[in-house]
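Q: Hi! First time doing this. I have a protein sequence and I read that you can turn it into a structure. Is that right? Here it is:
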Amino acid sequence: MSKRKKEINPSKPAPTEKARVYSYNEGKQYDIETRKNQNLGHITLYKRISGNKMLNEQTGEVVDIKKREKRLSRAVFSLLKTLYRLLKENFKGNTSEKIIRIESNETITDKEALKRKIKSCKEKLLRIMDGIAFIRVLVYQEANKPIIDFWVKKTNGTKLELNQEQLQSLWSGGTITIRKITSARLDYLARYYNNNSTNINIYPTGIKVYSMSENIKPVVPTEMDYKDAEKLVIGYKPTYRGAVTIIETIEDKDKEIQHITYESFELEENKRKIKSCKTTKPVKAKGNFAK
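A: Yes, that's right. Below is the predicted 3D structure, encoded as structure tokens:
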């Protein structure tokens, strides 16, 4: 058994295909993921039963899956895209918000040691600062050289004042810088998945790409028919459209087990929502960002 994912030219989903709709940035942005097949139980033979063991539900055979040292790049991309939604929903680019960037001056290959350092750093941060919400991001530009970004904001909206000397105690053997978040730079800074600040090919397994405080507002998707999702984005500008097919090889035969269409939309600034029944034309490219 093997699976592979392949980018394909996107086509418009059928009206009754089920869509997962993400609304964020106070309703100014939407992501729509439409899956052609909702239940794969009749196609996928294997399911995980524990750890790295997979069970063939037809034959009862149990197989071991080789443990990966590096995360799949597409999995990192997906997590960073989820992170983007969270950042755009919770941060606005004002004086109550900043990014605390911690760059390790040493190579760290021990994932358990890195987890302990991150946990200690978070606990120290909460002791230094009260009344805050945060999202912690793990960034890799070079292998085994982690960068930790803490997106921090005051929950009462007042100006966030940071003491460089106090912050230096958060991480021994690291360089700490403070980055401003402006409304003009917010979107770029939040796009870890494609803003060239992150190498998605070198993330280790076994450690969370991001985490957040309990007072961060989640972005929860809504399930609906694609025809209803289309109505939500009337008057919104399409910014991305792409599609992938997931193929599984079973007994030397290829079967498409899933077909996913990805679309992103944004309400342009200072533009009222247009009440029209027209839909946007599909972009004739594989995963293009619309200009």
